[in-house]
From TrEMBL:
Pfam families: Got1. Belongs to the GOT1 family. The chain crosses the membrane at residues 12-29, 35-56, 68-94, 100-123. Coiled coil: none annotated. It is found in: Golgi apparatus membrane. This is Putative GOT1-membrane protein required for ER to Golgi transport. It comes from the Eukaryota. The lineage of its organism: Eukaryota, Sar, Stramenopiles, Ochrophyta, PX clade. It is a multi-pass membrane protein.
Length: 143
């Protein structure tokens, strides 16, 4: 299924949002870059999945804590409390998008280069722990 123009632009805005957020963190929590990254990220999500689905996703009753943390963090970044705001945003992001992490890790493991890196003995247990997957490391056959 080909992507339409809105989804292509939305994906580009999502990537730009992550780039600006990363640069804002690297440059000692620069509030301007973080705020720009937040705006690009939210705009990218809206363009990628649509305004209605974005609204429904962010305003589910069971995700109230994640929404409060995420949008509270954005508000704190906008009022120049960048460090505290980013901590709240990360907590909210993990709360909102946590169920998608195992799916993303499983998809990344199928990619040619990234999958090989994630399969390294040092990295694999760490990625398994982050993804929340329970792999049987016991090599004995079941009884």
């Amino acid at each position: 299924m080909p992507l339409d123009d809105n989804k292509k632009m939305g994906t580009g805005l999502l990537i730009l949002g992550f780039v600006f957020l990363f640069m804002g963190v690297i440059l000692f929590f620069d509030a301007n870059l973080l705020a720009l990254g937040d705006v690009l990220f939210l705009t990218g999500i809206t363009m990628t999945i649509g305004a209605r689905r974005t609204f429904v996703f962010f305003f589910k009753r069971k995700q109230l804590r994640g929404n409060l943390f995420f949008f509270g963090g954005i508000l704190l970044v906008l009022v120049r409390w960048a460090f505290v705001g980013m901590i709240l945003q990360v907590l909210g992001f993990l709360n909102l998008f946590g169920p998608f992490i195992p799916i993303a890790v499983a998809a990344m493991r199928t990619l040619p280069v990234i999958g090989d890196i994630l399969a390294l003995p040092v990295i694999s247990p760490l990625v398994d722990r982050i993804a929340g997957s329970q792999q049987n490391t016991d090599r004995r056959p079941p009884v």
